[in-house]
Amino acid sequence: MLENFSAQMTILIIDDEAHIRATTRLFASEIFPSAALYEADGVQSGLAVIAQHKPDIVLLDVEMQDGTGFDLLRSIEKSEFQLVFITAHNHYALNAFEFSAIDFVVKPVDEDALKRALERAMVNIRKTNEISADAALGTVLSQQIALLNENLQQIHRADKKIALRDHDNIYFVDVPDIIRCSADGPYTTFYLKDRSTIIVSKTLKEYEVLLTPHLFFRVHHSHLINLRHIKLFRKSDSDLQMTDGSNVPVATRKKDDLLKVLNT
């Protein structure tokens, strides 16, 4: 189905390294043979191609000879494309991309990773077309880019924001306002301080990796909690009461580790 949908797609690759462009183009042509593919080698040439061809998907390098991918995005009045960054950033910076819910592939580009990113972009395009939300797309992307910039500059801050995407929306949430997360198969439910919930189609394991450095702890195979929001730990019953009044079980194998964390 996505292959048929891709026949109408235009993909633009913007990178100042010719071999990266060539490899990415080769992989993209193998993944979606019917898509129209274009290249640019920097910010200015990228802006020209965007204006001429109005791509559906832009694969954008972060750092180029004549500026950054952020410079390019700031020069566009209205972004109507799906964005995937191509980056050589380190592990901590990649967390900033994940916190911002912006897709990326890491250099050297891997075909499987690129395929997953392009397929996600195709799905997002189809959703956008179904709800006729073109006007909102540029605004949401701008918010994500602003959040990414903030997170890249302040990677280790505990009070950063995270972008959470459900079927219809992207929510920008203060990390300290997340009380806990629970697993439901391939989905994760976020329980927030204002008593609202957000269901995201990512596994709890992915958010455990992302949030553990920010005072979160996996107390159970189905529960990740924000240590700031523990109200009571009933050791005899091996469960927690959180600040929203909810009760969360603590797995036996996690009890000693949790006590150590709380003691420190």
Notes on the structure:
The protein has 264 residues and is α/β, with parallel strands linked by helices. It folds into 2 domains: 2-153, 3-Layer(aba) Sandwich (Rossmann fold); 178-263, Beta Barrel (OB fold (Dihydrolipoamide Acetyltransferase, E2P)), CATH 2.40.50.1020. It contains 9 helices and 17 strands. A 5-stranded parallel β-sheet has the order 2-1-3-6-7, sandwiched between helices. The protein has a 5-stranded antiparallel β-sheet with strand order 12-11-10-14-13. A hairpin with a 2-residue loop joins strand 4 and strand 5 (67-68). The longest helix is centred in the middle third of the chain and has 21 residues, at 111-131. The mean pLDDT is 87.
Topology (SSEs and partners):
Blueprint: H1 2-5, E1 10-14, H2 18-31, E2 36-40, H3 43-53, E3 57-61, E4 63-64, E5 67-68, H4 69-74, E6 82-87, H5 91-99, E7 103-106, H6 111-131, H7 134-153, E8 161-165, E9 170-174, E10 178-184, E11 187-192, E12 197-200, H8 204-211, E13 216-220, E14 223-226, E15 230-234, E16 239-242, E17 247-249, H9 252-263
Parallel strand pairs: 1-2, 1-3, 3-6, 6-7
Antiparallel strand pairs: 4-5, 8-9, 10-11, 10-14, 11-12, 13-14, 15-16, 16-17
Helix pairs in contact: 2-6, 5-7
